[in-house]
Amino acid sequence: MAIHTPGRLRLALIAAVIAAPALQAETLLGRATHVRDGDTIEVQGVAIRLQGVAAPELREKWGRASKEAMQRIVSGQRLRCELTGERTHDRKVGVCFLDDGTDIGAELISQGLARDCPRFSDGRYADVEVTQSRTLPFPGYCRRR
Question: For site-directed labelling of 139, which of 3, 46, 124, 125 has its Cα 20 to 30 A away?
């Protein structure tokens, strides 16, 4: 049976913190190589879930229209994606901008084809929601906890 002294416990805690993978924010530059749906794109082959954006799923009403709008927004455009270091499923999480500074998530929401997801946006997109946006499904995961 091991006896834990305060010094050993402190060393174990320090070792655990050092060994834990750190969230590493990074910036990714490039063109969209694929649009999966309204809130997930691929840039240089890296899947990116747009932070704080809730677009309808492809099988839902407006899902295909949302994807097609995102395709138009990013088509031929250079993007700068500020990645948070977080991941969801196979995707990195981030906010992406066109060269002119346009936030592509805000653009999709302002077109009425996605919603602000306050749990992850902290309300960043609430002001750009339009009436059409508010008619879209509001995923449970977007509710603040």
Answer: 46
Contact between 116 and 108 under an 8 Å Cβ cutoff? The reply is no
Three-state DSSP state, 142 = helix
The whole-angstrom separation of Cα 93 and Cα 141 is 15
Question: How far apart, in Å, are the Cα atoms of 2 and each of 7, 8, 35, 111?
Answer: 13, 11, 54, 62
Q: Find the helix or strand (DSSP H, E) in which 66 lies.
A: helix 63-74
21-76 pLDDT, tens digit each: 456 789 999 999 999 999 999 999 999 999 999 999 999 999 999 999 999 999 99
Q: Quick one: tokens of 126? A: 């609430």
SS3 34: strand
